[in-house]
Specification:
The structure holds 2 protein chains of 2 kinds.
Chain A lengths: L2 H9 L3 H30 L9 E5 L7 E2 L2 H6 L4 E9 L2 E2 L6 E7 L4 H4 L3 E2 L2 H9 L3 E5 H7 L6 E6 L10 E12 L8 E5 H7 L6 E2 L1 E6 L5 H11 L7 E5 H12 L2 H30 L1 H10 L3 H37 L11 H28 L2 H4 L5
Parallel strand pairs in A: 5-10, 7-9
Antiparallel strand pairs in A: 1-12, 1-13, 2-11, 3-5, 3-12, 4-5, 4-8, 6-9, 7-10, 8-9
Chain B lengths: L8 E14 L2 E14 L3 E5 L6 H8 L7 E6 L2 E2 L5 H11 E5 L10 H6 L9 H14 L15 H13 L5 E5 L7 H16 L4 E5 L3 H4 L4 E4 H6 L4 H6 L4
Parallel strand pairs in B: 3-8, 3-9, 6-7, 7-8
Antiparallel strand pairs in B: 1-2, 1-4, 4-5
């Protein structure tokens, strides 16, 4: 027997109380891990190449388009290696509930920049040759059972074509796989040329530009130069890194980082109160035993260490199950938000944060019992009376 | 002080004053109290409640400190030791047996007896051997794997005695060890204490209200009479068995 075994056995003395407290801890860490998974998507959902990719969109709103000729103007800025562009199609299949992430992209440059999408060379070439060609992700192909050569009607909630219809017809020319865990396989791409020539309005415009900068370029400097170029134009631009751009898009709906912070603080404050209360109660019930242990020669430090280990155990078990359930739930959440927020996943470093939180919370929860144990008078606790 | 020619003084309380605050009042428990107990004695401290018997026991065991005066155990003054040193000293020198045994309910009899040995450099096997020996000594070896809730009151007290002697302390302090037991079981426990005193040379100080218990002691101190007569250490040691 040692202090660890003693703490282990003491922890399970009141099984119901231990289980209920563990459950509270589990819920706290479940929420924390779930939100961390979403936060991960907001901050790191693009491949490592993204640090060289900028996003230039209309300063007022992404819904406003920019003239396509900006591509040429941006490409001559020093530090810019290449420029591509894309437009949001706002697509769905058959029913508006089947929303799809469909982009019209510059077929010449887009996939040179996004090399995290693995496309067979011959398929990519075939797509470039096919005006109505469509590149789909493996996940989409699997979900709908689509294969190369299939003719697919997709509807747009934004764009009407020249025929006055919102339904557009495409031919599957390529299927891509994502080379990074952060990438998703639920996007669809078609040629901007086809899009631009077929739509009924807003021709020669794009939703955003993607300037790729050289390795040694100053990101802020290049961004400022791009925006300065169009400061007096009709389409005033705002250039950020791709990572910031995606984060800002998500934050149009809600300031996720702030929500995460508030929820995490609220949850952990409640958690601390619950676990503190449990540990104080546990300690109070065992004061006689603690006094006896002191009488036997155990120091206050030993008793405090025991309380700390019990707190760690309680929190660690709760945290373990919380993280486990969050990990399982994220499989579903990831699927649900794949079109809008790809890359939802728990970063391995999150578990280090959880471990630190467990140790820290255990220390805080042991403070009051430690104070009581330190002040514990053996003779008084063991019932000595004059 | 050693007045006996062939034995050393195991416990010496000299000019002990002990008082505590109760609200705005100061309650004096002991006023200029003196007591000496020799090595190998089995002393029963008796008297009505409220005279400070348990307080004396706690002073001897280093569980409490006197307001003034000195407590010397085996030649070492303990009243001036720090809390940390006192804790270590207790682990090495004193075995406690209380009316409520205070066994840890999550540990088996064996585990409870092993508990004080965690403070020693003994390894796991040695600790188990020592605990088994102590349990055998108190006739509880067959109950080693049982939890306290599976034991009777007498058996629990036997385990508590095994826990008190497992680290081989020279002094055993008992606070009403038979207070919760029936006569037959109480006699068994007292016989056990007498064996520890006679066969193993343990110095035992026992606080008790049980007149029968005093029959097992080598010396009985009636605290009420002792305080009333203002006896000195020497007189106390000369006191005869009741």
């Amino acid at each position: 027997m040692n202090i660890f075994q003693l703490a282990w056995r003491n922890s399970f003395r009141k099984k119901t109380r231990f289980s209920l407290t563990c459950l509270s801890v589990m819920v706290a860490f479940f929420l924390f891990s779930l939100l961390a998974g979403v936060n991960h998507a907001l901050t790191t959902n693009v491949s490592s190449d993204n640090q060289y990719r900028l996003m230039t969109s209309h300063k007022i709103s992404l819904a406003r388009s920019l003239p396509v000729n900006y591509q040429q103007k941006i490409s001559v800025i020093q530090g810019v290696d290449n420029v591509s562009y894309a437009s949001w199609f706002g697509g769905f299949f058959q029913d508006e509930s089947n929303q799809l992430a469909v982009l019209a992209v510059d077929h010449n440059s887009y996939f040179e920049m996004y090399d995290e999408y693995n496309i067979a060379r011959e398929q990519l070439e075939q797509w470039k040759k096919t005006r109505t060609g469509l590149i789909i992700g493996q996940a989409i192909a699997t979900k709908y059972g689509w294969k190369i050569g299939d003719k697919i009607p997709l509807s747009s909630s934004i764009w009407m074509n020249k025929e006055g219809s919102f339904t557009w017809y495409f031919t599957v020319s390529a299927i891509y796989q994502s080379s990074t865990s952060a990438g998703d396989e639920k996007r669809m791409f078609f040629q901007h040329v086809y899009f631009d020539k077929s739509r009924a309005y807003a021709r020669n415009t794009v939703s955003w530009f993607i300037p790729k900068v050289t390795i040694d370029a100053d990101l802020d400097g290049v961004s400022q130069q791009i925006d300065a170029l169009f400061v007096n134009a009709n389409g005033v631009t705002r250039t950020t890194t791709e990572q910031v751009f995606i984060k800002e898009q998500a934050q149009q709906f809600v300031d996720m980082a702030m929500v995460i912070k508030i929820v995490v603080i609220a949850v952990f404050f409640t958690l601390l109160l619950i676990v503190c209360n449990t540990m104080v109660q546990t300690n109070r019930e065992r004061l006689n035993e603690s006094a006896m242990m002191k009488a036997l020669g155990f120091s206050s430090g030993f008793l405090v260490a025991q309380v700390y280990l019990e707190s760690v155990l309680l929190l660690a078990i709760g945290a373990l199950f919380g993280c486990l359930f969050a990990q399982l739930s994220l499989v579903y959440v990831k699927e649900l938000f794949a079109d809008f927020l790809p890359g939802i996943a728990i970063n391995p470093s999150h578990y280090i944060t959880v471990s630190v939180l467990v140790l820290l919370a255990a220390a805080l929860c042991s403070l009051l019992p430690a104070f009581t144990l330190k002040r514990l008078t053996i003779s008084h606790s063991l019932g000595a009376k004059a | 002080m050693n007045t006996n020619n062939h034995k050393n003084t195991a416990i010496e309380l000299s000019e002990i004053n002990k008082s505590y605050q109760k609200g705005s009042n100061t309650v004096v428990v002991h006023d200029n109290f003196n007591l000496a107990i020799e090595e190998g004695e089995f002393v029963a401290l008796m008297g009505p409640s409220g005279l400070g018997k348990s307080t004396l026991l706690h002073l001897i065991g280093g569980l409490d400190s006197p307001t003034s005066g000195s407590v010397t155990i085996a030649g070492q003054r303990i009243d001036s030791l720090s809390e940390a040193k006192l804790t270590l000293w207790r682990a090495e020198n004193i075995g406690f047996i209380f009316q409520s045994h205070h066994l840890l309910p999550v540990l088996t009899a064996q585990g409870n007896v092993e508990l004080p040995l965690l403070l020693t450099p003994l390894n796991k096997n040695e600790r188990q051997q020592h605990a088994a020996l102590a349990l055998r000594l108190v006739g509880m070896e067959e109950r080693a794997k049982h939890l306290p809730k599976e034991l009777s009151g007498g058996q629990e007290q036997r385990v508590a005695i095994a826990r008190a002697i497992v680290s081989d302390p020279k002094i055993i302090l008992c606070d009403e060890p038979t207070g919760n037991l029936d006569r037959k079981t109480a006699d068994e426990i007292l016989t056990l204490l007498a064996i520890l005193n006679k066969d193993y040379g343990k110095t035992i100080v026992m606080v008790t209200h049980d007149l029968k218990a005093s029959e097992y002691a080598s010396r009985v101190i009636n605290l009420e009479q002792y305080i009333a007569e203002g006896k000195t250490i020497e007189l106390c040691k000369a006191e005869v068995k009741v």
